[in-house]
Amino acid sequence: MNRMVVKDKLLIPILSIIVFSVLFFIAVKTGLGIDYDSKIYIKGAEYIQSYGIISFLNEPSFAMWPPLEFVVISGIKSYSSLLLFQYLMVVISILYWNNFYSSFYEPDKLNQWVFALLLSTNVGLLLCAKFLWSESLFLFLVSTIIYYVFKYVKTQKVAYLFLIGLLSILLPLQRISGLFIILSIIAVTIFFLNNYRLILFESLGLFSFTGWFLITNAGLSRREGIELSFGLFSDVIFNYFDVVQKNFFPSILPYPVLGVLISCLVLIPLFVKAIGNIYIPTLFIWMTNTALIILSIFLKKAGNDQQEIMRFLTPIIPLLLILVLESISVLGVKWKIDRKLLILIPTLLSIYSFVRAIKNSILFSEL
């Protein structure tokens, strides 16, 4: 490989990490963020330290939450170490996504830079690193398994299969929505990748989830029953589109119109023949996960506010960033849009994202 190409391939991710790191160190001036969920994780981790993992799994008060986050926290001795761990999980995820985009999409340099900046200044990623939530480790697991699924298809290295199997086992033990990731990549493998050996390893997570469910019953006795409500469903949909919108634009309208337009934008390339082979599988993973997330929030009647939806979407938001940038590029070529305008749109997105991130990191430093 040409030395200049290697240099460019390393430079963009490194600068992306530097940007995120600056924002992170501003945001954590007051230390690790602790909220209601954080206190539950700390309490559960202390329980494991005192009584062991077997006793923890049989404790009804923790049955609603998958155990991996509690186990990880129980092995980390200080808040500063937890903060470092969460920072590393997000940083490694940023590296994976930058590599995923450059390796499998082979975008032009402008899109690589814009993606790197949008990713490193994403507010959701910053919150995941700041607060003691399960999303930071989950983000790492999601980033890694998606990257290596496509890496395996490209290289056919058997070692990647075992890594995919391990990640699949861990995903639903970190968050129940890990099941959504597993189901979506299995579906992508069946419909687009046609690799049945890969499906076998991807499916291992279904068994780990089943084992945990049989032991704990997933706290079903403590969960609210399903009650269909059009009002709740409309709230979930509204908040979903608003969260999508806020990843790119400020809320300048009373309704998330731009969120709806962005969601439609990523569908348009399906009707353009110039679309790359990987676009449809990426879109399928995004759409399957978002549909399952919306359905899950609706049925369990909880977590339907914007912050909760943001937390659900953050681990897969890099997929949306890629889809939007690729859609703009594909449509620009198809419709012969002036190159200056094509450069202007992602540049403005980057500037807004950067300014917003600085503002939010200063705000988070006071929490």
Automatic annotation (TrEMBL):
Keywords: Membrane, Transmembrane, Transmembrane helix. The chain crosses the membrane at residues 10-28, 84-101, 113-132, 138-153, 160-193, 199-220, 252-272, 278-300, 312-335, 341-358. This is Glycosyltransferase RgtA/B/C/D-like domain-containing protein.
